[in-house]
Design brief:
Distance between the termini: 35 Å
Shape: globular
Number of helices: 9
Order of helices and strands: EHHHEHEHEEEHEHHEEEEEHEE
Radius of gyration: 20 Å
């Protein structure tokens, strides 16, 4: 396993993100800090909820299209950004078994990644599995190369970035690509706003707990005294930007101390702090943003209901 990201690096980034986010107007926190062990377990629970369709729909597309992806790319190296448990990836690994020589899963959680990579290596004994602990937003140039790479960025995670950041990230991916390389990009699609809001505000309250988990992380890692129950979960459709915003709404006037930053922050009753955006796409936007990053669409697939998309892109021209 390669490590480009240490526990100290993560701690420094958390301190920076929390200090800057709590000083902003409005206040914000990046969604990456949802995902400690508890947050990851909550997200796995979310993916099984009836209201939360993206995981199921992406798996449907992969099941149907993995042979076409294999035929179009002939990939010898699969590099997966934000690999997580790698469950959906197994569909690609099976389809690519005729050509694939190496699998490079990339994630920020070393322990979780090591376990997932070991499972895949055991099930694919002829495959070289090289796990990398890294932040794909910072370490793209350091990630391993390889012949005929397929770079996979699944799950709709691209939607957590605002437009300029997305294009910058996609441009960074393009800068690492050679002729014959491809990007496989999962993106959620614009649909009925009511259905979108329900996907991020489920009846059982699992997403609300997931949202508040960022406060537990800050309490533990930065010696803060947030009362998570003093913040209500909200999911709002931003029509102009075509994205869902997850927010935490203060239920009363309160002051929070973050001991690790020697910082005190006030929240007014009703004040909202944004913790995530989840952009939804149309094909035209994907085409434009990939084009701005120096790529072009080779194939574009959706599930039968048109809920979610997989785009296979390559270097332009």
């Amino acid at each position: 396993m390669d490590r480009f990201l240490t526990a100290d690096d993560l701690a420094k980034t958390l301190r920076r993100d929390v200090r800057e986010g709590l000083a902003g107007t409005p206040k914000t926190l990046p969604p990456k800090w949802f995902y400690d062990e508890r947050g990851s377990a909550l997200f796995e629970e979310i993916t099984a909820l009836e209201e939360y369709y993206p995981t199921r729909r992406e798996r449907e597309i992969l099941t149907a299209r993995a042979p076409e992806i294999a035929a179009a790319t002939g990939a010898r190296t699969l590099l997966e950004l934000g690999a997580g448990s790698g469950e959906k990836t197994r569909l690609l690994l099976d389809a690519l078994s005729g050509t694939l020589r190496s699998y490079v899963p990339v994630d920020v959680s070393g322990d979780f990644l090591e376990e997932a990579a070991a499972g895949i290596a055991a099930d694919h004994p002829g495959l070289a599995v090289r796990a990398v602990v890294a932040d794909y937003e910072q370490h793209l140039p350091l990630l391993p190369g390889g012949e005929r790479r397929l770079v996979a960025f699944l799950g709709g995670t691209i939607g957590n970035m605002p437009p300029a950041e997305r294009i910058g990230f996609l441009g960074g991916v393009r800068a690492t690509m050679a002729d014959g390389d491809f990007l496989l990009l999962g993106a959620d699609l614009v649909k009925d706003p009511g259905r979108l809001v329900r996907a991020y505000d489920d009846a059982a309250g699992v997403t609300a707990e997931f949202n508040r988990n960022v406060l537990y992380v800050i309490n533990r890692d930065l010696d803060a005294d947030f009362d998570p129950e003093a913040f209500a979960h909200a999911a709002v459709w931003n029509e102009a930007e075509e994205w869902i915003e997850m927010r935490l709404r203060s239920v009363r006037d309160q002051r929070v101390r973050v001991g690790g930053l020697d910082l005190e922050v006030s929240f007014a009753a009703g004040e909202e702090m944004r913790t995530e955006i989840s952009a939804k796409f149309r094909r035209e936007r994907l085409d434009a943003e990939l084009g701005a990053a120096g790529m072009e669409i080779a194939e574009f697939w959706t599930d039968p209901d048109g809920d979610f998309s997989l785009t296979l892109a390559r270097p332009a021209g």
